[in-house]
Amino acid sequence: MRGIARGVSPSSGFRFICYCQDCQTFAGFLTRADVLDAAGGTDIFQMPPARVTLTAGADALRCVNLGKGQVLRWYAECCRTPVANTASSPRFPIVAVIHAFMDHAADGRSRDGVLGAPLCGIFARSARGPLPPTAPPPPSLGISLRRASMVLRWWLRGLAQPTPFFDDRTKAPRSAPRVLTASERAAL
């Protein structure tokens, strides 16, 4: 599976590290411990869905719902690579692209060079280990307002659609979500 994200820069999206139990469960579901950092965090870049296009292998796109909430977690079935997280509706103007699906080195730049440093770390209480000294700080009011204003701009500009994760006509997910049971989540 391949994709292109257009207009990516530190000012065009929102990068953070998420230590939540759900991100850790998703990595366990995919049997991809390499997606998590040493403390159990996932590096994520939020951007508008209209700037993401899947260019090859979209037939391998699958999604899972962890059975609690409205987040769909998308992955490539063939290699179990996490792709992104979205809301369960295509109307919400955010796609949270997961670092494992990104190729920053294609033009010789680092992840920080392309996306900027992570602005914050969220759900640090769920970290599996101590956070590194270089971990980003918790979200501040200023960071939260910055993210909210970005989302509002994306929504006003109509950047929620088109989205590669939902059918343009029916608005249904391109892959029927697999909903994990409580016992499946507990096993992960």
List keywords for this structure.
about 190 residues; alpha+beta; Metal Binding Protein, Guanine Nucleotide Exchange Factor, Chain A; eight-stranded mixed β-sheet; two-stranded antiparallel sheet; 4 helices; about 25% strand; globular
Quick structural gist:
The protein has 188 residues and is an alpha+beta fold.
Explain what you see.
The chain is 19% helix and 25% strand. It has four helices and ten strands. A hairpin with a 5-residue loop joins strand 5 (61-65) and strand 6 (71-76).
What coarse outline follows from CA principal-axis ratios?
A: globular
Q: From N to C, what is the helix and strand string?
A: EEHEEEEEEHEHEH
Radius of gyration: 16 Å
CATH architecture: Beta Complex
Could you tell me the strand content as a percent range? Answer: 25-35%
Number of individual domains: 1
State the distance separating the first and last CA atoms. 25 Å
Structural class, from secondary structure content? Answer: alpha+beta
- Tell me the number of strands: 10
Mean pLDDT, to the nearest integer, reads 93
What is the helix tally?
4
Q: What ranges have pLDDT less than 50 throughout 5 or more consecutive residues? A: none
Helix content: 10-25%
Please identify the top-level CATH class.
Answer: Mainly Beta
Strand order of the largest sheet: 9-2-3-8-7-6-5-10
Major sheet attributes? 8 strands, mixed
Question: Could you name the CATH topology?
Answer: Metal Binding Protein, Guanine Nucleotide Exchange Factor, Chain A
